[in-house]
Task: structure prediction
Amino acid sequence: MSERLLVTSALPYANGSIHLGHLVEYIQTDVYVRFRRATGDDVTYVCAADSHGTPIEVNAAKAGMTPKAFVEKYRAEQHADFQRFSVEFSTYYTTDSPENERWAHRVYRALKEKGLIYKRSVEQLYCENDRRFLPDRFVKGTCPNCGKPDQYGDVCENCSTTYDPRELKDPYCAICGTRPIVRTSDHAYVNLKKVEPLIRGWVEAEGHLEPAVREQVKGWLADLQDWCITRDAPYFGFPVNDPEFPGKYLYVWVDAPIGYLSSAEHYFAAEAPADRRLEPAEFERRYLAEGAPARLEHFIGKDILRFHAVFWPAMLWAAGLKRPDRMPVHGHLTVNGEKMSKSRGTFITARTYLDAGLDPELLRYFYAANLGPGVADLDLSLDEFRNRVNADLANNVANLASRVASLVPRAGTPLAETPEELVVEATRSALHLGRGAYLALELREVVRLANQVADRCNKRLQEAKPWEDPASPSSRKVLFTAAKALRGIATLLWPIMPRFADGLAAAFGQARPDVWAKDFDPFAGPPVEARAKPPQIPRLEPKQVEKLIVPAEAAKDAAKVSKAASPAETATKASAKAAPPPGVIQYDDFARVELKVAQVRSAERVQGADKLLKLSVDAGEAEPRTIVAGIAQAYPDPAALVGKRIVVVANLAPRALRGITSQGMLLAAGEAPNLSLVTVSDGIAPGTRVK
Result:
């Protein structure tokens, strides 16, 4: 039975461009939403530009624009970038809207009526030059813990110490550079301790949070602090409109999550198709009221978990609304193992990716191949990105489609054969397991399952050799089976790569893969015909991927330092280093050895050599490489090695063994005949560097 869902992603701040770190969340959510829709669920996916706060007010003034115009500029740019990466919202609205103002005041009044709001006088840093109180990020100074200068007013980026802005040494206003003074101001606080049992009840209920996330939030609840929800003028946001707090504005983190509700209400009232339009009261009854039949699911990053898992449930409860049914939390994006950095050129925007000429669906695929339901950070290793695309898509799925498509016309169409049972079983199993993986947000498992089916089909083609006589009954059967299995792969991959998956199905005259009923069987339906050329995935070359790294100022500075050092100084420094003990190598010695993951495609004995096997392996390169290894005594049945993902030395000079040129060496533990190959899991793509 189908479900009704309201799904949201966190609202991007309308103060800059979308970058690849943002896209982790929106691609993850979009993939999930597409899957749910394909299975027949009624899903509304809303998002909006987070449009309020001091940074927007200040930066709009610097740009010579009104805050509203400034916000709209970035809102339109962000929406266009999301669309280029196939992220399709039902609406992409703004929190600076009449609907959101009405909702925000409703929530504020509800909190006050519940007795949760009280007044507290607080000391804050005030800039006399700019005539404003300074939020944390608009104060800089020297860290009181480590002494690092130019740190923000809430946390030191050098030692990670958190502190009150007043604790900074030599503080200065980040806007004008003058030294601030301390002033007192009255603000509205929410007494969260009063509703701690209610928040805890939501946190501990099964299904709302992943277990590791739940434990983190419970730690915060053990030391729950009250929440200041107002800010002083000047401030771009909604005025409180409460005589008890004259001149105050609602803090941006009050109206930002409320933007989920107001954006959805706006969609149903003004943007939905005519047959789906709902008046605000009816929308609330169906989607937001306590006991409403629709599921509410928020996708967020771990950096905003406290706002969503502690403050947000209290706000919803006060307003008489249901709390989220599920809150998936993801980690941050790193690039080449490090935090994204403008100085290193790894702060990559969506536009930079597109300007490099890279297909957006390749990034969607790579993210999916590395995403699970947990909060572990995702690393965009550019080598792994290239190897994953080449091994999984270019060499496996797209290669299979191209091989089958070239032979189907020669086999005589239409093809309506009895499919081979082993491939049928593997494909149906992958589809069954894939449904569960999507629901659990185990996107990496979906990718593995799709490649497993493609790999099995490629091996079957190698065994059957249908190109020798495409029109024979056995060849027609193999080609029909592979083409139908590709229809199953298209269904598995459609939420991740919709354009590519559509092309896979259309190439063989099959129905669109965006419908995934529970009784779906790719081996049923229309016969196989050659209708169009299947989509191709050209192999990525290093130079293409390297375009993502914009030359950084840090590299220029390093070059200046290098030029400043004389050869004599360099030699003196080198000789000053102590020589390592005998047998101990330096890191640079190890770094010269290039270890890569490779998948065994075939293995056979070398004639006249009892100890040698000849392996053909896929190391994520244009052509397989041959490796001759002395492992025959440990593996008397060479066929058992086919499909294993092993580790090879990829930059070893070629060497002739028994008349065969061996292009590398594999890693194994033990001594013959009792040795075992070093292997890695199926989730690691051929060509991935081993470090």
